[in-house]
């Protein structure tokens, strides 16, 4: 088994809702989504091992980090009433969808159907962190 880890810095962008234009159908957040997926693709291609098996099954561990809104903080720091868990938008499954498509576009896998397992979390970032996602990608190749 081969694996590698990457940390993509930036606001995670969900891939989900579509909207129709006069000539085509695009993602509702198309511009931000393209930038986010490009960041993920660059990190994958820069860190993927040279002997990576693009035909093998893949498992992914994803830890999405989001910045807390200013309303969570008071004069003395984090308010006691601030939520512990990020249960607000964006949907975790839509964040995963953006990553899986980025993996395919970066030629990590031939098709994102090769991803056989996801372990994903979304949470508020800690003070020493930046927003983004930490990925551990495991190639299930028998080689």
Please provide a written account of the structure:
By secondary structure, the protein is an alpha+beta fold. It has one domain: 60s Ribosomal Protein L30, Chain: A (2-Layer Sandwich). Helices cover 22% and strands 31% of the residues. α1 (30-47) packs across α2 (92-105). The protein is globular, with a radius of gyration of 17 Å. The mean pLDDT is 92.
Structure keywords:
143 residues; alpha+beta; 60s Ribosomal Protein L30, Chain: A; 4-stranded mixed beta sheet; two-stranded antiparallel sheet; 2 helices; globular
Tally of individual helices: 2
Q: Which value, in Å, is the CA radius of gyration?
A: 17 Å
Order of helices and strands: EEEHEEEHEE
* Fraction of residues in helix: 10-25%
* Top CATH class: Alpha Beta
Ends: how far apart? Answer: 7 Å
Mean pLDDT: 92
